[in-house]
Design brief:
Layout: H1 2-5, E1 8-9, H2 22-28, H3 35-42, E2 45-49, E3 53-57, H4 61-72, H5 79-87, H6 89-100, H7 126-136, E4 140-144, E5 151-155, H8 156-159, H9 162-165, H10 172-187, E6 189-191, H11 192-198, H12 204-215, E7 220-222, E8 231-233, E9 246-248, H13 259-266, E10 287-292, E11 295-305, E12 310-318, H14 324-341, E13 346-352, H15 356-365
Parallel strand pairs: 12-13
Antiparallel strand pairs: 1-3, 2-3, 4-5, 6-8, 7-8, 9-10, 10-11, 11-12
Helix pairs in contact: 4-10, 5-7, 6-7, 10-11, 10-12, 14-15
Amino acid sequence: MFDTVGVVQVDSVNVLVRSQELPLFSRLGDHPRSLIPDATARGDIFEYWCHAASHLPVRHYPLSRVRMEQAREGLRVWGGVREVARRNPRLRDEILARVNSTPEGIVAGEVSTRKGPKGQWWDWDKGKSILEWLFWTGQITARRRDRDFARVYMGLHHAFPAGVLALPVPDAETAHRELLMLAAASHGIATAGDLLDYHHLRGPAPRAALAGLVRDGLLEEVRVEGWKEKAYLHPGATRPRTVRARALLSPFDSMVWCRPRDERLFGFRYRLEIYTPAPKRVYGYYVLPFLLNDRLVARVDLKADRQRSVLVVPGAFSELDTDPLEVADELADELQLMAHWLGLGSVEIGRNGDLAVPLRKLVASRR
């Protein structure tokens, strides 16, 4: 899967399941939920900033080193954590030494400098800020603790094979070219904005690298009917006559995280409403697009009620120009597959949306 998408965004939202698990379910179906922690423990994947906080294949570590070194120079790193690290050199060195001397890693609470109660979610004390700066600048790495998703900060030599740490670091231009080619391979065809967004590349240098790839014949500049911007075609892109697919997609899935691309490809205007006040929500709290073949055909509000062992579907809404009965039929199967994957005993359909009634009947008939 990582050979195909390259990046899996990490997010703490857990109303259904941790978001980084959903891209695996979308592509692999029912699978062992230990795959990501197992791959992390083996050193096959690691976490770092990419599109956002992301799981990446370890072979991309040298490409991330470029961003880490930029962060040490004060580029593309939060100013607050940089300033805390700069103003507290002794504490910074003490924390780095402690992380490097602790094979199992440490969590932020073990180096906390807080004297009063914690404020807002991003109210970090000096210890946490320094850990994040060390992580951002690549002096340490981090993994996730299973029970609460907290970052466990680790020394590089405890987390990566020596051969990975010894890999040469490319210069910035080479890294930009490689990242753009990876994004193009994952997209097949894309605008410049799509390609730059995939690994969160910013500024004139990545755009110059893209122009160089076209000049060198590694990407083909093309026009797509209905697109205002020119596009770039990867030479390995396939053009199947038909597409057979069915998947519920995380809001943070690489297929849909670029909202302008969603609208351009699928006519699908997608906004996550987690932070929208409940009375103003259109579709629900945690809404997943539903892919059927080559279209996004529905939006499904989902929640895992773990105490009752129920996959709750507060709402399900078909898109225009779809067959609601066909969509409901396929969606019912996908929901039951998801419930089984999550170890939930049943699927409960709510009342919101035009698919609610047919879904309820279909789910009841397949128990």
